[in-house]
Every structure is written in structure tokens, then in C-alpha cells.
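Below is how a single chain appears once it has passed through the pipeline. First comes the sequence as given, then the structure the pipeline wrote out for it. We keep one example in the README because the format questions we get most often are answered faster by looking than by reading.
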Amino acid sequence: MGFDIKQHFRRGLPAPAVPFQGYPEYNFVGGHNDNDSIPVDELIAAATRSLEAEGRSLATYGLTSGLQGHRPLRDYIAKRLKDSAGLRDGAREVLVTSGSMQGLELVNALLLEPDDCVIVEEASYGGALARLKGAGVSCRAVRLDDDGIDTEQLARLLAEQKSAGQPAKYIYTIPTVQNPTGCVMTVERRRRLIELAEEFDCVIFEDDCYADLLWQGQRPPAIRALDTSSGGSSRVIYCGSFSKTIAPALRVGYVVADWPAIAQMLALKSDAGTGALEQLVLADYCPAHFDDHVEQLTQIMRRKCETMVSALEEHFGATAEFTAPKGGIFIWITLPEAVDAGVLALAAIQQGVAINPGADWTVDGQNNRHRMRLCFGHPSHEIIRDGVAILAQICHREFGVPQRGGNVARGDSR
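Resulting structure:
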């Protein structure tokens, strides 16, 4: 018999990956972007200019700026966040990461120990929830509505944790175009969130990866921008990304925090620096093109969202309850309780339709099995219409809803 390396694997590993065989035809999962919106020509020109000017600096890890990130890119990030979100930080407070996920992992490594408590929104980013579970911490869920976190319930949760001798280490929030619900937290609640974090002495981790793709209303100031209560220092760690605005495959994100946190995360960042070529290209491209590109991309996403809303109304009718998002690339849908979205996902993928079951995007997965998240960022309008129609047919076949495969008039309840 040949050597079986699997016998030497450690215990407790996740299920192994399967060979990649291409994306499904109707791909409504992940945070993929619109193919035609990638600014290919401008990125080629930026790559050429930046390599001609600074290509020889690729000979050193971190180019000429060190492992914190390419200084021109950090300067740009700081300036744009000042203009768009009200942050007052400079390049010294910016750490470039290999995607926002690495930022999340660094924050966890910085703050968390097993058995710590983190408060998260009841529906939240599945990648964040999975990593918190993997870190061995407990998660308390706080309710969401169209205005963001329910701060009255948050106050009660923080008090309960303090009384139990296990105060919350941090509050994880996606305040602007929340993932998966698409809601936007009001400024009043952002201020109250800061007051509560100060009262109970915990950190706020602000994930703002979707804030640039807001098409309804004005972008509120970041929570970090509003935190002026600590004599010049902030208890808010801010995270952003170029994945949703330029291209996910670039894998460039960033963390903004006071220098003591940045210095410690830099010591924890063990990858010898985020990809340098991507940073060179973004630093050249963004100052002249980013704002116009994002404005165009946001309108493309708005129109795709309208197509998906129309398709859901036509094919699911009143069976699918949702609030149309104010931006971003996701719609969060509640189906009748008899529907198990995990079972639906398994049946749908057999016909080339991929969806995210709600259990993976909630703290209480068992009671959210009838919810699902659909991403409209990547598929074309035609794919959205056809894919939702097929999904409704599969749902009807598996669970008997929507009746007649759809075309049931929606009420005003949503």
C-alpha cells in the first residue's frame, strides 16, 4: 500500500476542500463583484506607471515603507476616510492587510482569549462568526432593525455580561450597509453605542467594508470618527477593504486604529507583508479614479438590486419577506418557517443555483434556518431573473412554497 499522509493529520481539522470545478451558473453566494465593472484598462496603466517608477523596490519586503503597508497607499486611505467618513487618522494609524479577513483575524489575535465574550449583531458576516467560534469565544446576539443595533437591548447584554463576571471584550458591528441585512445604523445609535462601550469599558470593532456602495441616503460618519470621549484616543478599531469597490481577488484591506493597537497587530502579522504589486497599483490608480469608479459601480449595483427585488416579487411573491437594502450587494430573505434553507441550498446547487443558508449568517442558526442571503453583485440581470425563477421552482418542489411556483401578490407587510 502507498503512504497515507491522512493518518498523520492532527485531530479537529475542518472538512477537506474539493477540487475547484468552476462557479455555478446562477451564483448568488460570496462577495463577488461585477465583471464588466473591473477597471481593467486603468489598472493596466497604473501597473505600468507604478512598476516603471518603483518596480525595483520589489526587491525588499514591504517595498520602501516596511510591512505596515505602502506609504502612498496608506496616505490615500487616510485622506479618503477623512473626506468620506470623517476619520482624523493619518498613515501611522493605517495597517494594510491581506483582505479585510486578515484584519478581522488580527483583531481577534490582539484581543481575544478562549472563553471571552463578544457581542455581535444577530445576523452578521458568516466569516466573522466562524472565526469567533474557532477562537473558542462565546457570542451574544443583539437585535437589528432598519436603524441598526437595538442599543436598549445592547445595554442589557453588556450589563448581564458584567454582572456574570465576563464583560464583553468587543462589540462587532457592520454599521453602514450591514451584511447581510443591508441596514444603516443611525448617527444617534452610533453615538449611543460609543457611550455604552465607554460605560462598560469594551472595544468596538467597526467593519465598514460595504460603506462605499451606499445608494440610499447619505453615508453617516464612521463610529470611529464620532468617538471623541477618551481624550484623543479611541476605543474603536475600524476595518475596510478594496474587495467590494475594486476587485475581491486583489486581497487588499486595511485596519485603522490608534498606534498601540497597530504596533501590536503589526507584530502579529506573520505574512511578511501584504502583496506589494497590488498596493503599488492601487496607490497609483485610486487618487485619480476611485471616486468616479465607485459612483458608477454603486449605480450598477442599485440596478441589479432592483432586478433581484423584481424577480423575487414575481416568482416568490409573499413567500419571500425582505427589506430592499440601502446599498451593497446582498438581499436578506425570510421564507416560511417550514422551509429549511440548508436543504434548499443542497437541492438548488444540483441545478446550478448557489445560495447562502441563513443559519451560517446568524448567531442562532437553528432559529434562522428559514432565511437565506442572495448576492446580486456578480450575476448579470438575465442570470438574476432566470436564477431566481429556478430557485422558486425548486423551493416549491421541496417545500410546497411559493404556491404555483410564485406569482403570489406581495402584501404591504414587509
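The chain has two domains: 21-39+292-405, 40-288.

See the next section for the split statistics.
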